[in-house]
Recover the amino acids of this structure.
């Protein structure tokens, strides 16, 4: 019995079930101290204790002792070393394994053509990142004047799995997984203190990495490649806000104050105010004009809301590359006129779980585990399907 595997599975399943250490210990009829020693890998439990824990967590004993799946072809970068990095990788690997298992069970494998897409991206890159974004928009059947209304649905329709993790940090916004490990998949940090606009941008940012930087998909590589990040940021900006429709929307608001113009346009494209200001600043040749633009918006926010809007950290002042600087993306700050989590909702995995439960392929408890919700919530969800 591997204490490391058992500990990892106990921690993951306990969080899925919404159980504290105390509650799980009581459910398994062991002391809290005994449970903590097991979860911290300080004591090896007796076989009957393992069976009791499995019963309390509503899983089979083999599931509790099974080695966690691992990822190799993953791009996972952050601004600082993350204590939970290994845990996130295990969580994502488990989510992908469950996702793929459901696809196989239900004969619902979703085909993708990323090899061809990568070829198209490489060809168009010679004309610049905006050209890559335009090429991909055409493949995703978006016109050059059409905003992206549902990034999750758009990606899922093309065979990209969209998953979420919740990590209380703004040093990590997302990661992506190549096909060899169950992808293509994008994984977004949906921590509640990060604006939903950041979630949407991060999903698009990771799409860019899947298309442009496959050579960087190595699980052991943690260092940030600034140039790759800039390319992914530029791609996301132009994929979400193609120039023709952006210019039309911006010109249509010409009579409004800058603050109101930015908020109106940002809601059209479902992006952050920073994305809009960057694109406006692109057309200003004078660095001082660009700097004043950001200051003017921040001052207007402070006057209206009586609090300071966090600004980007650019020692040389705001210039045309400000939006593409990695550090800027991780200073979340407030999002004026923000959206909520319903604006970023993948639904393919939920459909597969419903089908698998309805057909008797999996239990409600297994469905709750796959979706990462409490069993009581799973029961309520199943009841709602019949309404």
């Amino acid at each position: 019995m591997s204490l490391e595997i058992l500990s990892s599975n106990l921690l993951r399943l306990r969080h899925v079930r919404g159980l504290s250490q105390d509650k799980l210990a009581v459910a398994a009829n062991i002391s809290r101290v005994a449970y903590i020693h097991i979860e911290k890998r300080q004591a090896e439990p007796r076989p009957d204790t393992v069976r009791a824990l499995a019963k309390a967590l509503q899983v089979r004993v083999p599931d509790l002792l099974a080695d966690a799946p691992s990822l190799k072809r993953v791009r996972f970068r952050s601004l600082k070393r993350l204590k939970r990095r290994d845990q996130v990788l295990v969580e994502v690997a488990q989510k992908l394994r469950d996702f793929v298992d459901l696809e196989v069970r239900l004969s619902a494998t979703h085909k993708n053509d990323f090899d061809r897409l990568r070829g198209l991206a490489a060809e168009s890159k010679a004309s610049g990142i905006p050209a890559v974004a335009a090429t991909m928009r055409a493949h995703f059947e978006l016109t050059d004047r059409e905003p992206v209304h549902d990034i999750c649905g758009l990606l899922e329709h093309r065979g990209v799995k969209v998953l979420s993790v919740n990590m209380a940090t703004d040093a990590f916004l997302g990661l992506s997984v190549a096909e060899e490990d169950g992808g293509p998949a994008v994984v977004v940090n949906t921590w509640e203190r990060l604006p939903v606009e950041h979630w949407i941008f991060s999903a698009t940012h990771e799409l860019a990495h899947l298309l442009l930087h496959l050579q960087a998909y190595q699980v052991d590589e943690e260092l940030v490649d600034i140039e790759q990040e800039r390319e992914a940021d530029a791609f996301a900006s132009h994929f979400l806000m193609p120039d023709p429709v952006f210019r039309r929307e911006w010109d249509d608001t010409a009579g409004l104050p800058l603050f109101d113009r930015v908020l109106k346009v940002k809601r059209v494209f479902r992006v952050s105010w920073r994305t809009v200001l960057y694109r406006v600043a692109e057309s200003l040749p004078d660095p001082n004009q660009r700097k004043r633009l950001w200051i003017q918006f921040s001052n207007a926010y402070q006057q209206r809301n009586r609090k300071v809007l966090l600004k980007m950290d650019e020692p040389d002042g705001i210039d045309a590359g400000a939006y593409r600087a990695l550090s800027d993306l991780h200073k979340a700050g407030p999002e004026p006129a923000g959206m909520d989590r319903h604006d970023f909702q993948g639904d393919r995995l939920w459909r597969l779980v419903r089908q698998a439960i309805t057909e008797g392929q999996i239990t409600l408890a297994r469905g709750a585990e796959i979706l990462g919700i409490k069993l009581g919530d799973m029961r309520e969800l199943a009841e709602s399907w019949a309404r």
Observations:
- The first strand starts at residue 74 and ends at 75.
- The domain at 3-65 is CATH 1.10.260.40 (434 Repressor (Amino-terminal Domain)).
- The two ends are 45 Å apart (CA to CA).
